[in-house]
Structures are given as structure tokens and as C-alpha cells.
Amino acid sequence: FGLTDDLRRNLHDYAVAMIQEVGLLGIGTVEFLLSRTGELFFIEINPRLQVEHTVTEEVTGFDLVEVQLALAAGAPIPAPVPPTGHAIQARLYAEDPLHAFAPSPGEIRLLAWPDMHGLRIDVGYESGDVVPSFYDAMIGKLIVHARDRETAISEIVTAVDEMLIGGIATNRAWLRELFQSEAFITAQHTLATAETVTVPSQPSTALSHLAASLLPEETIGSAWSTAGPFRVVSPATLALHDEAGGWEAQVTYHASATGWKASVAPTESDGDSGSATSAVVIDTVDGFEVSDPSGRWLINLGPQPKAHDGEATTDGRLRAPMPGTVVAVNVAIGDRAAKGDVLAVMTAMKMEMALAAPFDGTVIQVGCAVGDLIGSRQVLITIEADGESEDTDG
Predict the structure, then answer these.
(1) What is the pLDDT of residue 222?
(2) DSSP label at residue 148
(3) What is the CA 240 to chain-centroid distance, rounded?
(4) pLDDT of residue 307
(5) In terms of C-beta density within 10 A (0-12 exposed, 13-18 middle, 19 or more buried), how is residue 5 classed?
(6) How distant, in Å, are the alpha carbons of 25, 118, 146, 185, 237 from that of 180?
(7) Rounded to whole angstroms, how far apart are CA atoms 345 and 354?
(8) What φ, ψ does residue 251 adopt, rounded to 5°?
(9) ∠ CA(355), CA(108), CA(379), 5° rounding?
(10) Which residue among 40, 201, 223, 267 sits deepest, i.e. has the most Cβ atoms within 10 Å of its Cβ?
(11) What value does the mean pLDDT take over residues 54-61?
(12) Which pLDDT score is estimated for 145?
């Protein structure tokens, strides 16, 4: 997109000349930067297939893996062909855009792809697989090929909207925001555009998805019974809060002649977050996970825990932000801790993470030991705030 025929020929000629100069036999990627004034700047040569090779395959019709093997067997280099249409690739990663894109390894509870014409999926995982904490966090790639760029953008957004994934955080919402940004749509994006893309910090329609999933069902073990007990008379109210303490909401169920209806207060933001069918609701230890195109939300039952000393609300349970290994436990049950004291340390994906006390209090539970392999969101240590037990008894 945006390349004139002359500029495309120059790129091709430069790439071929450099490959011939170094004597590369096989497939390589030659990278350039194009300035706003039309100047080309060489960056590097990668003598291998790269992640984005699928885009080339879609617009040329070549199977580059097949070409690479044929070249190794002595076949001649195929003649170049002009590109047809427009292709876009999106890389789906196990990382959390709300927390500085921290890796989010763990079990993929559900993974399903939309059935769309022109959509290609290159993926290494399926439902039930575990994204490990030792390697690159890429789950897979979504590639669309359409007649023009405008159509390709529309189709990649639809693909991101309609896919289903639950169990881990991903960059899905960030991809959606990027593809719908003005800079990307108008082809004015630069290397700095990624830094300007933000994802919602509050749920858009996630609570409505959850409320609908909690409606009474005839099946045993439904989410309704999990979240109960409910009164059989109308209305019935259920309190929900964000696990991180960011918000609290009330879901009220009203009985009618045609069944139960749910309303959420306060009203969720009006952002477009895709279709209701693209939401995944999963039971967790403390409540529910809701994953939809706007993000992934960990929602607990009951009202929001009270704040301590004006700080963010917390229940005092220190959870592992991702799967990893415990390398230090600095407290035992009954120990006093001051706000900010490091109670435990874990490592994951070559990073060391300190788990600190959120407030002054007493350690009432230690659920880990040095060397333990721990799961995402596993409670490692629980601390009770000063005065909390007295307030509860009173």
C-alpha cells in the first residue's frame, strides 16, 4: 500500500543485488525504511523466513516454505509476480495490555476461530493447551486477504471480534483498537503509533455478558447456582466487583412472563465491543472471568473490599500475576508486615517479581514454599489489615 510501481521495482532490485552480493542461497528478508519524502533506507537482511511471511504468501500465491525446500534441493528461483489484493496479519500474544504487556502464560480454557472466507489461521495451540512461561508468548496469527486495504481492515477487525479465547490475558483488545485507530485506517501510522494505542480499563459490555450467563438454567451446575443463592421472587440482586478493585457493580434480575431479565448498574460504557456471541464466561476460584473483544475481566462476587488508608481496595490476598516459580518466602503465619514489605518473590519468563504487602497487617496464610511451581492468579500469601478482625467481630 502506498508504493508506486517505480518504488516497488527499486525495492526488488536493491534486495536482489544485496542477496547476490552476499551469496545467499535460500529465502531471506530484506528490510527498508521509507521516509515521508520517498527516500529508502536499508535496515538489515534476515536470511530466513520471518513471522510476517504469511502476508507475502497471501498476495503472491507462493508457499514460501515449499520454495525454500525446493531451493535447497537445487530448484531455480521462481520468477517474481506482482502482488494481488491486500493482506494484513495480526499476532495474538499471551500478554496483558492493561499491565504493560506483561506475559500471561497459563491454560487456554477455550480457543475457537471464526469461519470466515479469506481468513487464514496459523496457530500452535488449542483449547486445553498451556502457554508455558519459558518461551515466546505468541499464540497464533490471523491473516486476512482481501481485494483492497479498506476491506482487509474490516475483515481483520471482524476476525478479532468473533474469535473466542478464555483463560489467559491476550493482546486481542489492543489489536482491535490499533486496527480501528485513525492513524492505521488512513495509513499514517508509524513506529510510534503502537505507543498511542490504549485499551479500555473499564468493562464495556462484559458485565452484561456475565449477567446473561447467570440467568437461571435447567442444567445442573449452571453458573446461576454457582453464584447463588438467589431468591425465587423478583427482584434478585447480585453484587460484583473487579478483582483488582477498580469498580463495583450491581446486577438486578427481574422476573417477567417470558423469563428473567437482567440490568446492570452503573450502566456500562457505550463502547462497541463486538457481538455477544464472542464473549467467553468462565468460572474461577473467586468468581468469573469474562473475555470479550474489549478485554479480559476478572470479576468477583460480592461488594468491593473496603479500602485501607485511602489506598486501592484489596482483599489482602497476594496472587501470582502469572505462572512461575517461588524463589523466596520472607514471612510465616503470624508475622507482622508493613505496607510495601516484600513477602515473597517469584520468577517467570526470565523476570523476577516481588509480591509486597498492600497495607500494614498480620500474615494469616502462607500458601507457597521456595521451589513451588505456581499457577496464574494462585493465592500465595494472605495478610489481614490492622483492626480488621476487631471490626468484623464487632
Answers:
(1) 47
(2) S
(3) 22
(4) 57
(5) exposed
(6) 40, 20, 17, 6, 36
(7) 5
(8) -110, 125
(9) 25
(10) 223
(11) 95
(12) 97
3-state secondary structure of 219: coil
Do 312 and 323 meet the contact criterion of CB atoms below 8 Å apart? no
**216 Cβ contact list (under 8 Å, min separation 6):** 222, 224, 230, 260
Beta-bridge mates of residue 362: 336, 384
Burial class (CB in 10 A: 0-12, 13-18, 19+), 104: buried
DSSP-based three-state secondary structure for 81: coil
Phi then psi dihedrals of residue 253, to 5 deg: -105, 130
Chain segment 184-204, per-residue pLDDT in tens = 999 888 878 989 999 988 787
Could you tell me which of 285, 290, 349 has the C-alpha nearest to residue 104?
349
Give mean pLDDT, residues 354-377.
90
* Partners of 308 in beta bridges: none
For 339, phi then psi, to 5°, come to: -55, 130
| Span 284-306, pLDDT tens digits | 877 889 999 999 988 888 887 76
**Residue 5 φ then ψ, to 5°:** -60, -40
pLDDT at 176 over 90: yes
Measured CA to CA, the distance from residue 289 to residue 140 in angstroms comes to 22
Give the SS3 label for residue 265.
strand
What percentage of the chain reaches a pLDDT higher than 90?
44
Average pLDDT of 148-171?
95
d(CA 83, CA 78) in angstroms, rounded, equals: 14
Listed residue (49, 64, 59, 63) closest to 3, CA to CA: 59
Amino acid present at 248: E
- The residue with greater pLDDT, 139 or 300, is 139
Taking 60 as the threshold, does the pLDDT of residue 274 lie above it?
A: no
- Give the separation between CA 211 and CA 223, rounded to whole angstroms: 10
At a CB cut-off of 8 Å and minimum separation 6, what does 234 contact? 253, 254, 255
**Residue 220 pLDDT grade (very low, low, confident, very high; cuts 50, 70, 90):** very low
**Residue type present at position 358:** P
Closest by CA to 119, choosing from 151, 93, 71, 96, is 151
